[in-house]
Write a structure and sequence with these properties.
This protein is α/β, with parallel strands linked by helices. It folds into two domains: 268 residues, Hexokinase, domain 1, CATH 3.40.367; 138 residues, 2-Layer Sandwich (Nucleotidyltransferase, domain 5), CATH 3.30.420. It has 15 helices and 13 strands. It has a six-stranded mixed sheet, sandwiched between helices. The chain has a five-stranded mixed sheet with strand order 4-3-2-5-8. The longest helix is centred in the last third of the chain and has 30 residues. It is globular.
Length: 441
C-alpha cells in the first residue's frame, strides 16, 4: 500500500526522454518567436553585447545592486585568457528608509558610497563601470534600461517607468563623482556567461541554477528579427528569461498548488519546477499528502510542514544524501526525534524525485537553447553555470550532465558545464570591458 502511493508520485514526477525531446523542440520554437518579437513565453531580451574574447585588459568597476546589501568591486583584467583579479571590494547596507523613500535619495546614497570607495582606494583616473541592477528592467541599449517594477521590498518613488542609469548618473553628478562612466547595465545571467567567456572564448551560454533559474545565450545577429537599435555586432548575448517557459512541461497538481500559492500566479512555470526556491515547497506538499493518507509520520503533521517557508532547500540536501548522523541531527531539530529507517528512506525518496525532475527539465531547456547558440568552435561548447542548486545540491551536477548527454547523444561529451561564480560582480566588470574596448566580434 505504501509503496504503491510513492510509486504513483514518482510517476507524476518522472521526465522520460520522450518528454525531454518535446521540451527541447518547443524551446527552440519559443526562442525563434521571441527573437522575432512575436508572442512567446521566452522573452529573448537583447543584452547589446557579444561574449568576451579573453583579450580584454585593464581595471574596471562593478556595482552590484540586488537587495539591501550591495557592493562595489575594482576588477583587473590581465587579458590573454588569464583569470580576472578582484583588486578591492566593499559591501554596503541600505536602510529600510532608503529603499522606501525617494528614488533620488536612494541613488544619491549609492553614489555617496561609490565616492567613498573611490577615495579609500585612491582611484582618481576615469574608469568604466558595469552596473548589475537585479530588478525587472527593459533594456534600451547596453547602458540604459527602464525599471518595470520594484521587487525585494524596494519601493523608492519616482523610479518605476524611468531610465535607471540616467537617474544614477544624475546622482553621481550631485555627489561630484565625475570620473566614473557607467557603460553597461548588466544582468546576472549575462554576467555569468561573461565571467567564464573571459577565461574561455568557447563559452557561449550562462545559466543560473539557484534560488531562481535563467539562461543567457550567444546568438547570431542574423537570427534576431526584432529591433536592436544601433548594435552592429555579428553576434549578441540574449537574456532568454527562460524561467517563464510554459510549453509541454509535465506539470501536475502539486505544481498547480505551488503556483497558486506564489506571488506571481500563472508566470514562471519552468522556474517553479526547477529552481531552489520552489523545490522545498514541492517536497512539503508531497509529504503532507503522504501524511494525510496515513502513509507517513503516523498521520501527524510535524510543525515544520505547516508553513510553506519552514522546510528549506538545505534540509533536502541532508535528507537526500547526508550521513546517518547528519540526518538524525536534523531530524531531532525538525521533528524532536530520530527518524526510523523507513522514514529516512521515504524522505530521501521524495527529495530525490523532486530534485531529479528539476535537473532533467533544466537539461531539456539548456539543450533547447544550444540549438540556437552561435559557437566560436565546432569542437566544444562551454556552459557557465552559477547557483547553489548546481554547486551544492548533492548529485545535481551529475544528474544534469547525464540528462544532457541522454538528450544530445554522443556529441554530449563536447558540452562542458563549468561552475562560474560571481557573474553579478566580475561578470559586470567584464561586460564593461567588452563595451569599452569594442569587442563586438
Amino acid at each position: 500500500m505504501k509503496s504503491s502511493l510513492i510509486e504513483t508520485l514518482e510517476g507524476q514526477f518522472s521526465v522520460p526522454l520522450s518528454r525531454m525531446r518535446k521540451i527541447r523542440s518547443f524551446v527552440t520554437k519559443e526562442m525563434d518567436a521571441g527573437l522575432a518579437g512575436r508572442k512567446s513565453s521566452i522573452a529573448m531580451l537583447p543584452a547589446y553585447c557579444d561574449a568576451a574574447s579573453g583579450q580584454e585588459q585593464g581595471g574596471y568597476l562593478a556595482l552590484d545592486l540586488g537587495g539591501t546589501n550591495f557592493r562595489v568591486m575594482l576588477v583587473e583584467l590581465p587579458g590573454s585568457g588569464k583569470p580576472p583579479r578582484v583588486v578591492a571590494e566593499a559591501k554596503y547596507r541600505l536602510t529600510p528608509g532608503q529603499i522606501t523613500g525617494s528614488g533620488a535619495a536612494l541613488f544619491g546614497v549609492i553614489a555617496g558610497y561609490l565616492r567613498k570607495f573611490l577615495k579609500e582606494h585612491a582611484i582618481t583616473a576615469e574608469i568604466a563601470l558595469g552596473y548589475t541592477f537585479s530588478f525587472p528592467v527593459r533594456l534600451l541599449g547596453i547602458d540604459e534600461g527602464i525599471l518595470m517594477k520594484w521587487t525585494k521590498d524596494f519601493s523608492a518613488t519616482g523610479v518605476v517607468g524611468r531610465k535607471v542609469v540616467a537617474i544614477q548618473r544624475q546622482a553621481l553628478i550631485r555627489k561630484n563623482v565625475r570620473t566614473v562612466k557607467i557603460v553597461a547595465l548588466a544582468n546576472d545571467t549575462v554576467g555569468t556567461l561573461q565571467a567564464q567567456a573571459v577565461l574561455d572564448p568557447d563559452c557561449g551560454m550562462g545559466v543560473i541554477l539557484g534560488t531562481g533559474f535563467n539562461i543567457a545565450v550567444r546568438v547570431a545577429s542574423r537570427r534576431i528579427r526584432k529591433e536592436t537599435g544601433t548594435y552592429r555586432g555579428k553576434s549578441m548575448i540574449i537574456n532568454m528569461e527562460t524561467g517563464n517557459f510554459n510549453k509541454v512541461l509535465p506539470r501536475n497538481s502539486y505544481d498547480q498548488r505551488v503556483d497558486k500559492d506564489s506571488g506571481n500566479v500563472a508566470h514562471q512555470f519552468a522556474e517553479k519546477m526547477i529552481a531552489g526556491k520552489y523545490l522545498p515547497q514541492l517536497v512539503r506538499l508531497l509529504v503532507l499528502d503522504l501524511i494525510r493518507k496515513g502513509q507517513y509520520f503516523d498521520g501527524h503533521v510535524p510543525t515544520v510542514f505547516r508553513d510553506k517557508e519552514s522546510f528549506q532547500g538545505w534540509h533536502m540536501d541532508v535528507f537526500e544524501a547526508g550521513s546517518r548522523e547528519a540526518v538524525q541531527k536534523l531530524s531531532q531539530e525538525l521533528f524532536g526525534r530520530d527518524l526510523a529507517p523507513s522514514e529516512r528512506r521515504m524522505m530521501a525518496r521524495v527529495c530525490r524525485m523532486v530534485s531529479r525532475r528539476s535537473a532533467r527539465i533544466a537539461a531539456s531547456l539548456i539543450v533547447g537553447a544550444l540549438t540556437r547558440l552561435e559557437r566560436r568552435s565546432k569542437q566544444r561548447v562551454v556552459v557557465a553555470v552559477d547557483g547553489s542548486l548546481f554547486e551544492k545540491y548533492p548529485g545535481y551536477h551529475r544528474v544534469l550532465t547525464m540528462a544532457i548527454r541522454e538528450l544530445v547523444g554522443p556529441s554530449g561529451k563536447d558540452i562542458s558545464l563549468k561552475l562560474t561564480k560571481d557573474g553579478s560582480g566580475i561578470g559586470a566588470a567584464v561586460i564593461a570591458a567588452v563595451v569599452r574596448q569594442g569587442s563586438q566580434n
